[in-house]
Specification:
With about 400 residues, the protein is α+β, with helices and mostly antiparallel strands. The chain contains ten helices and twelve strands. Strand 2 and strand 3 form a beta hairpin.
Amino acid sequence: MRDSGYDMYYSGKWHVSSVETPRDRGWDMSSGSAAVRDNSDRYYHTPPDMREWSQYQRLQSGSPDRVRGEGEILRPGYPLYTHYGKHEDLFRDQKVVSDAVEALRRRKGSADKPWCHFVGTLGPHDPYFAPQRFVDMYDLDDIELPASFGDLMDDKPGLYRRLRGRFDQLSEREHREAIRHYLAFCSYQDYLFGQVLDALEESGQADNTLVLYISDHGDYVAEHGLWCKGLPCFRGAYHIPVAMRWPIGMEGPGRTVDAFVSLADFAPTFLELAGAPVDGKMAGMSLAPFLFGKTPDSWRDAVFTQSNGNELYGIQRSVMTKEWKFVYNGFDFDELYDLRSDPDETRNLASNPRCMEVIRQLSRKLWQFAYDTNDVCVNSYIATALATYGPGEAFA
């Protein structure tokens, strides 16, 4: 987009690389550079040498004589973790938004050159700390646990249960309190987003600016007794909201599009709308037809996920249609859910002999996608080629 004449601005979270900055990828960091640096320091650092881990003894949360406090999860040898609480701005998201607002104000009345601005706040990420006034918006008595909360996951991979074991320290009331704080954190993000929209209106460029409000991932929010995000391939971590606005460009605003959309679709969308060339093959497809009120003839009928683990390594690939979800777990047994009768993904049917043909058909889709995207998880070695139906099924 920069090569096509766009000014590129970046504010906030940088989760692309620990060795490159936004500037290395074509962004102007004159706005929000401090926020980029602060957040990068928080997330990207050299792991401590084992000899330095003695510092954790001073922060240790799991000594035998310690009594667990409100919202705390004890982890011997690790720093104290508190799952939720009140804080005016734990991740300094207001700073990120203020930088973006200032950049928008500087562009007021200057619409002669196209621009793109990424505003990356960290919230509503765990731990869930929100300003008190947003927590007060929600009554604890109104908070209900998700339908899958009681799923002990006995029919699911062991790592899922191991992760749940951390959060089982919390009482049901604490889980509900955590949901309350998560919702408050989301409302705080809406408040910050409103500041960006107000500044865009003040700049006089709101009508001809495509605005995208989106998250990079979801959160389990007590589904299956889990929180945060990780290897468990449940919808909560992957199914994220998307809201788009473009007053003079979008046809029929107010519509809800019921189609399989991927985060990978936004790159080709932006390039098409900007009139910029697409170099090479992309995994995503442009959403421009949907914005103009059309439905493409050949849109996808399934959506795929890929993971090599969330720092705990584990090869995992999944395919989801409107009827089924199949998860290939190279590190453990697979998962299959009938989304029509079990939308909360509580009953794993992967070992049901009557479902073998469904698994085979979904495996074909999975391996075809792997082939199309040059996935590197395919290996025929006897000790690692453990899928029920291997890649050859894609070409059967």
